[in-house]
Amino acid sequence: MKHLLGTEDLSRSDALRILDTADEFSAVANRQVPKLPTLRGVTMANLFFEDSTRTRLSFEAAAKRLSADVMTFGASGSSVSKGESLKDTAQTLSAMGADIIVLRHFSSGAAHRLAHSGWVDAHIVNAGDGMHEHPTQALLDAATMRQVAHKEPRGEDLSGLSVVIVGDIAHSRVARSNVFLFETLGAKVTVVGPPEFLPPGVEAWPVSVTSDFDEALGSKPDAVMMLRVQHERRSEAVAWSAREYIRDYSLTSKRAQLLPIDCVVMHPGPMNRGVEIASEVADSPRSVILDQVRNGVSVRMAVLFEVWGDGS
Fold it and tell me: Exposed/middle/buried for 83, CB within 10 Å: 0-12, 13-18, 19+?
């Protein structure tokens, strides 16, 4: 696998191999010196055209734990502000010796374009492209689900698990990547949101769709994933009421009390506390949000290892 561009076309065997490798890499964090020589001599470049905290730092930590060299590019204060294109920026990093480019970009399809354009020979990892996909987030979410799922017997995939994804589905690349990966791994997925926050054609996705959050919670899910409202991607022409959204779609303490005792709460971050999720729920024992962050490092170690392969 030279590139990781999305989960829609990721096979079950490839996904499970990455998750199993991530399980093995997770032990590295507990070493006195949390490093392996696996990618010594390899240079990874973070090429981020959008702001990021968790994803960027997670990839940096993952690369350093594998002994790779790291270059980090941020569009703010760079030549992008002078009009430099994705092509020229990527070729500049490639000329500086980048073997793996981790790309976050505001345009859907940017990672595919970079991987297949012939502009660079580097291995490309999609760290989020517009409203399209965010495959490593889906993989770390799946890794977390495998750890915390209480179904017995526990399988290697997510078969038998029920996941409810709630919020701004239309603008969420996380939702898209999770839907496709979870379905590939055998989970049953329900997406929930107000009609104006559901994307056109969602009925064709391998999911159940509803605008009734309380009804979805009544199905006794194994996990509930809350998403933030992405104001930066919303058209001002789409009217919405924050008060009504909180009333109908916030995971409040009252709603959380109705969940099965072993149902976990997830969030890809950043959180808008008091909007899509109450602070007391985000900080409760059923929350695995910090587990997601921890798993992000080992999963991204596995992804870097996978795409680098033998360096070909």
Answer: exposed
